[in-house]
């Protein structure tokens, strides 16, 4: 797309629908170049369409919550994507002729509205350019290249108000009128299904006096009323909690009370739970607990963080006079924030000086708050409409990233997003005025984790961060370049003149960050070069024209729209897990291994037979550890956000956020998940490193820290058991002792240089009954511990605990000594315990059972590589029977060779799993900390700082 301008640039837009200021000379408009479409061919004619029946069911109650038959979608769209679009975005009453039934209707409703508004407001040079714009936008949506945020699909082209924004920032002053108006405005936003954030720091503290002489209530007191309002509106008919953010400055005199607000309520929840009350999320008694409907964040300054490092005192200041009312130990206050987050995940931190150092409109006002998910940060009383691109769509056949096409796609999407501000409706007059004057946009992306894995690059690696940073720089650079071109056509934003110098300074900061970006591979070097050129061009145009938009980019959760685009990963997130839950046409479901896994293995140079074996192993175990033929140096490529025994460490997430933050106008919606064993010191370190690495905001979540987070039906089952008065018959196992004389096998071994001996005694019927381990010198602590461990295992075996249970629990346990062994069947061990139970499995478990655990002899592994199948091999190396890793017989061709198999593995999903989260739990025997979906009852999974349901597309956030 190129810019064509005749006459001087015009001013910014005025009222609704206006595209230019009065009294300015006419500009000719944009000439739109084709990217994906073919002249004379409509995008709809290039795809094959099919009719489907879609329905949704609440898996807990069995109730069908939605059904629509005969909906029309492209054959390439998955059932999950079509179901979510049909249920969430089709308008009209179900069962009536007014109901939309085809994706064509949905796309036309939105795209034609954008085209008409663009023509009316002078964005296009000719009607032909408007038609190309319509066709390109249609093609990109049809082929899942990008998606607008949900409010666009809900509202654009309907009789409802044309609200296109999901993110709002409000403001409140130190007066009762303003506080009550805050309640009203927030309530109206919640009613519409969106969320809002605001900073309460203007409200005087409970340590200050009123004009009447009394003491002020303080912001925490008023938070109680707002929280009750949000909870009431939610319980009045919404299917999810209201999404809201509450921010307080670190120098507010009530900061210590604010920090502890939700932590104290968490103690109350625990007490209520122990007393038998229903305090699960959505439970009948949780409504009596306060402050649960908001995310809380503290605005910390550089001054405060330096005081934390130095262990100095920090002053808390009056809201009226600015004088210091009290002093606190900065380090103690910082620790209390980490302790509260350890207990209940709140508060998060927002780094005020960093945020405002990248602010393009400081002459208008400071940035004081964010939206509920923390990615949109701008002026008070403003809003932002979002759109996200599917990064995997820009990977070329040769594995490279198509920078040129990506940049052009960004320009097209930014053009559409800016057009929408002209016709959009907003919830308040103040938000309308600010949004029209500053025209904040939020373009972002999804599928970053899938892109990195498919490219054979680990998420937590220098290469992963370099490629992610380069792509983000290219995206924001292209967005601002288009914004500068639009300024020459329809004028810069109204607030640009007073902020011109500051805006240009931030553009130079972005370009300088791009120049200092270190590249690792040719892949990210090519993208960075493209970004460098785009920034140079865009800043030159901007110096002449100004810019159309005060903000251009951010990284949103992309929950529901991520499913619309059939993305494996949301926003900036890594892959959640290697196995996924897939719905089937006509009902039922399948367990599949992510398509990005075989792409990554192929990129890393593995042969097809090895890829098939690794994919089969992942389907069984949910991870890659000990997958046949996979080199350990490639394990990190397949590390995910969840799962055992490997997952991305918390600082890996922080470092990725820090890599891309300098190339975003806004911030990043992401919660750093931490294991349950994480300490307060770990959280302090994450918060401190986030500040040092230049993040704008950071939140953490420690697994199982919240009682009100429903993980299963365990709590309700416990309560029922306590209420039950029936007599409970308790069955206890009896011990079956070994005879005086029994067969045994003694094995000597070395693990990482440490020598040991293992003696395994069996029952006469060949069942393992005892294990004795000799490791370390007699009388040493290690020797004593191993003796005690041996006795415990032996007694349990004699009480009937299956050996395979021990193998499942103790293999892959990691501690020193670890490394090479002298056992040809177990060449590497992550610990002595890992080796011992692998050896016991090989010696005492039948092939079918240890095959399900992924444990094979060297002869069996060799045969799999040669024949494409696993089967037990006797001592002479002869195959005993034919079986795949999954235990099913392999059909062979007439010439004796195995027929080609698809790389992706599909199998019936576990009956108690209805989402990928539940599937991962079933495979690995772990518990994932996530809420249940209010609509369909399945367990959700993280998406940014929110949660999203794979079954129906519902989110816990504002978008």
TrEMBL record:
<keyword id="KW-0846">Cobalamin</keyword>
<feature type="domain" description="Ribonucleotide reductase class II vitamin B12-dependent N-terminal">
    <location>
        <begin position="54"/>
        <end position="144"/>
    </location>
</feature>
<keyword id="KW-1015">Disulfide bond</keyword>
<dbReference type="Pfam" id="PF02867">
    <property type="entry name" value="Ribonuc_red_lgC"/>
</dbReference>
<dbReference type="GO" id="GO:0031419">
    <property type="term" value="F:cobalamin binding"/>
</dbReference>
<dbReference type="GO" id="GO:0050897">
    <property type="term" value="F:cobalt ion binding"/>
</dbReference>
<feature type="region of interest" description="Disordered">
    <location>
        <begin position="868"/>
        <end position="916"/>
    </location>
</feature>
<dbReference type="Pfam" id="PF08471">
    <property type="entry name" value="Ribonuc_red_2_N"/>
</dbReference>
<keyword id="KW-0547">Nucleotide-binding</keyword>
<dbReference type="GO" id="GO:0004748">
    <property type="term" value="F:ribonucleoside-diphosphate reductase activity, thioredoxin disulfide as acceptor"/>
</dbReference>
<feature type="domain" description="TSCPD">
    <location>
        <begin position="739"/>
        <end position="842"/>
    </location>
</feature>
<feature type="domain" description="Ribonucleotide reductase large subunit C-terminal">
    <location>
        <begin position="165"/>
        <end position="701"/>
    </location>
</feature>
<dbReference type="GO" id="GO:0071897">
    <property type="term" value="P:DNA biosynthetic process"/>
</dbReference>
<dbReference type="InterPro" id="IPR000788">
    <property type="entry name" value="RNR_lg_C"/>
</dbReference>
<dbReference type="GO" id="GO:0000166">
    <property type="term" value="F:nucleotide binding"/>
</dbReference>
<keyword id="KW-0170">Cobalt</keyword>
<feature type="region of interest" description="Disordered">
    <location>
        <begin position="1"/>
        <end position="25"/>
    </location>
</feature>
<feature type="compositionally biased region" description="Polar residues">
    <location>
        <begin position="878"/>
        <end position="890"/>
    </location>
</feature>
<comment type="similarity">
    <text>Belongs to the ribonucleoside diphosphate reductase class-2 family.</text>
</comment>
<protein>
    <recommendedName>
        <fullName>Vitamin B12-dependent ribonucleotide reductase</fullName>
        <ecNumber>1.17.4.1</ecNumber>
    </recommendedName>
</protein>
<dbReference type="InterPro" id="IPR024434">
    <property type="entry name" value="TSCPD_dom"/>
</dbReference>
<feature type="compositionally biased region" description="Gly residues">
    <location>
        <begin position="9"/>
        <end position="18"/>
    </location>
</feature>
<dbReference type="InterPro" id="IPR013678">
    <property type="entry name" value="RNR_2_N"/>
</dbReference>
<comment type="function">
    <text>Catalyzes the reduction of ribonucleotides to deoxyribonucleotides. May function to provide a pool of deoxyribonucleotide precursors for DNA repair during oxygen limitation and/or for immediate growth after restoration of oxygen.</text>
</comment>
<dbReference type="InterPro" id="IPR050862">
    <property type="entry name" value="RdRp_reductase_class-2"/>
</dbReference>
<dbReference type="InterPro" id="IPR013344">
    <property type="entry name" value="RNR_NrdJ/NrdZ"/>
</dbReference>
<dbReference type="Pfam" id="PF12637">
    <property type="entry name" value="TSCPD"/>
</dbReference>
<keyword id="KW-0237">DNA synthesis</keyword>
<keyword id="KW-0560">Oxidoreductase</keyword>
